[in-house]
Specification:
Blueprint lengths: L1 H15 L6 H8 L3 H7 L3 H5 L3 H13 L7 H17 L2 H13 L1 H25 L6 H25 L6 H16 L41 H11 L6
Helix pairs in contact: 1-2, 5-6, 5-8, 6-8, 6-9, 6-10, 7-8, 8-9, 9-10
């Protein structure tokens, strides 16, 4: 029933457009009543993202089952790959949904709220692992945001190719960058530094050139995705 409702909804979205399609239209095509629709989906928006609740639950369980021997940054990167697997299981649907969310601002906002929930799950796990570290909460939040940004960078590269490129390679390349920066073999003074370690780090890059510094002022309580978007815009990059 759930799959039939999703299939009917997307058929109508393609034929008529998202805004022009009503719940009544969807249930009529699927051959069910309104009550059946709302048993599975709270709103029309939710039918566009039918698999995220299950994926979020899977990710939460995966992180909850982690042990002390799991390297934290590697673990959250592996958790992000669960989201990729969800998208890659149905490439045609994923590409179709990507095109739809680009056209409908309300769906883009909904999608960002879903992304924030994934980020929060990663951050909560890392906060527990980093609880004994100096700036542990800060490290957890920054790394969680970086993992989500890297995953989405690779995922969207794949979606923009209409699913023709290698999704695993795209996301794997992006997540490998996060592990190099934040993992146990990061440069001295990086975010995974344990309490009591002393470092002396010069400013600038390894070849002696100073890095650019970007300062972004944002309101208190702004979601991390918004802060990252502002940084990307300032650097002249596509925030998508």
């Amino acid at each position: 029933m759930r799959e039939s409702l999703v299939a009917a909804a997307f058929q109508l979205f393609v034929e008529r457009g998202y805004e022009q399609t009503t719940v009544d239209d969807i249930v009529a095509l699927a051959g069910v009543g309104r009550r059946s629709f709302f048993r599975y989906f709270p709103s029309k928006d939710d039918v566009v993202f039918p698999d995220h609740e299950g994926c979020l639950a899977e990710m939460t369980a995966f992180l909850r089952d982690s042990g002390p021997t799991h390297e934290p940054v590697e673990r959250v990167c592996d958790a992000a790959r669960l989201v990729l697997r969800m998208y890659a299981e149905n490439p045609a649907f994923s590409v179709q949904r990507y095109r739809l969310t680009r056209k409908v601002p309300g769906l883009r906002t909904y999608e960002l709220s879903v992304v924030w929930r994934y980020e929060r799950a990663l951050a909560e796990y890392l906060r527990g692992r980093f609880s004994g570290r100096r700036d542990g909460t800060l490290q957890a939040d920054v790394i969680a945001a970086a993992v989500v940004a890297a995953h989405n960078n690779g995922l969207r590269s794949w979606l923009r190719s209409d699913g023709r490129s290698d999704a695993t390679a795209e996301v794997g390349h992006a997540l490998a960058h996060v592990q190099r920066v934040f993992g146990p073999n990061h440069a001295p003074g990086g975010p995974a530094q344990e309490p009591g370690q002393e470092t002396a780090q010069e400013t600038g890059t390894e070849d002696g050139r100073d890095d650019d510094v970007v300062v972004v002022v944002s309101r208190r309580g702004a979601p991390l995705w918004r802060v990252v978007q502002e940084i990307e815009t300032t650097l002249g990059r596509d925030p998508d």
